[in-house]
Amino acid sequence: MQKLIACCGLNCAACDARIATIANDNELRTLTAEKWKTQYGASDITHEMINCTGCREEGVKFSHCNECEIRNCAKSKNFETCADCDKLENCALLVNLHQFVPEALENLKSLN
Hints:
This protein has one domain. By secondary structure, it is an all-alpha fold. It contains six helices and no strands.
């Protein structure tokens, strides 16, 4: 599978929001909205909100991308991803994500 690494190390190519957007798949949008409502405790997510081309790609972004502290930090430092930062493994913004999704850290390390 192709990888499209986000600023934080998540693989956007495997994200259901991106897959639904690229394929214009409304059924997947609905399933993703329902899943994220439960997974993230976000009862206000609707299938119309499930549109994203990827954190670092041109095009539409999921609403969280615009407010994401990790993405905003990387952009403010003119980094492509957090792999460009010398604080990668000790960053307070990344520690929780990488604790629960260790492959995100491995994705970033693979970019160096």
